[in-house]
Write a structure and sequence with these properties.
Order of helices and strands: HHHHH
Strand content: under 5%
Number of domains: 1
Largest sheet: none
Number of strands: 0
Shape: globular
């Protein structure tokens, strides 16, 4: 997974997605697929790291699983917002929004008492990413 992530980051940077002037065809046929794929692999890598930490019972500083779930979600949101405002890449952010929606729906359908902090963080993250996309669209700062 890390090899795929590293390769996609290298391709993303080498293509100057969000930074270089490209033809409309190049944007839709080259940049868009790499943006979406990088978004999914980023989220999948974050999810896999989380699963690994749970599997090895990583409980540093005595903080619970909910705390680390919130931290991981916040990291994903921060990455998405930085991609949005530095690279103006809304497609990457739409993938993150979709992933956050999946996390929210999963947490709401759990039969046990849902983790309120995870739900609140996910909702706040969705709002921030969505508002960021709208702001970039209104400012015409969308790549």
């Amino acid at each position: 997974m890390l090899a795929i992530l590293g390769s996609l980051i290298a391709i993303y940077l080498r293509l100057h997605i969000g930074k270089a002037d490209a033809t409309r065809i190049e944007k839709y046929l080259v940049h868009l697929p790499f943006s979406v794929y990088l978004g999914w692999i980023t989220i999948a890598t974050i999810a896999n790291v989380t699963a690994l930490l749970v599997d090895v019972n990583w409980n540093t500083l005595g903080l619970g699983e909910q705390f680390w779930a919130v931290v991981v979600i916040v990291v994903g949101i921060a990455i998405a917002l930085s991609i949005l405002f530095i690279r103006r890449d809304i497609f990457y952010c739409l993938v993150v929004d979709w992933a956050l929606l999946g996390i929210l729906l999963k947490r709401l359908t759990v039969e046990t008492l849902p983790d309120q902090s995870v739900i609140i963080t996910t909702i706040v993250g969705m709002v921030l990413v969505t508002v960021g996309i709208i702001i970039q669209g209104v400012r015409r700062k969308v790549y």
